[in-house]
């Protein structure tokens, strides 16, 4: 069986400007395993296919980085009761990304709104299908993966 690299059809980034196969080959040329730092160093070469995948305008890149940091901040906030120790139980996210609102919505608001709750449930199902596709090659997870429709 011959395999080639391709871009995921549901993701649109700078990467789509580059040839996926050439990008994969450049990453593989780093070694048996490549860190993001090593990939970045390789991408600095203007003659690489990887170079096409990154934003090189420092102002735009800084803004994109800060926007990503803001998303990280929101994803790190959890709910806990005032008198509860930090590690009392499994954490519940304080916010979820809302398909209906188009941004991050407090979990307590989502739980109280039938449409928001249904949208979150559909999002969770999509993410489970993504998980299934990502790990489908692991036979040890077959029983679990078969439960995901």
Key traits:
single chain; 149 residues; 4 strands; 46% helix; extended
Describe this structure in words.
- Helices cover 46% and strands 7% of the residues.
- By secondary structure, it is mostly helical.
- It has a domain at 1-54.
- The strands form two sheets. It has a two-stranded antiparallel ribbon with strand order 1-2.
- A hairpin with a 6-residue loop joins strand 3 (95-97) and strand 4 (104-106).
- It is extended.
- 7% of the residues are buried.
Helix content: 40-55%
The computed structural class is mainly alpha
* Number of helices in the DSSP assignment: 6
CA-based shape: extended
Q: DSSP strand (E) fraction?
A: 5-15%
Mean pLDDT: 88
Strand line-up of the largest beta sheet: 1-2
Order of helices and strands: HHHEEEEHHH
How many β-strand stretches?
4
Radius of gyration: 20 Å
Cα end-to-end separation: 27 Å
Poorly predicted regions: none
Largest sheet: 2 strands, antiparallel
Tell me the layout of helices and strands.
Blueprint: H1 20-28, H2 36-43, H3 58-76, E1 78-79, E2 92-93, E3 95-97, E4 104-106, H4 107-112, H5 114-135, H6 142-145
Antiparallel strand pairs: 1-2, 3-4
Question: What would you say about this model in short?
Answer:
By secondary structure, the protein is mainly alpha-helical. The protein is 46% helix and 7% strand.
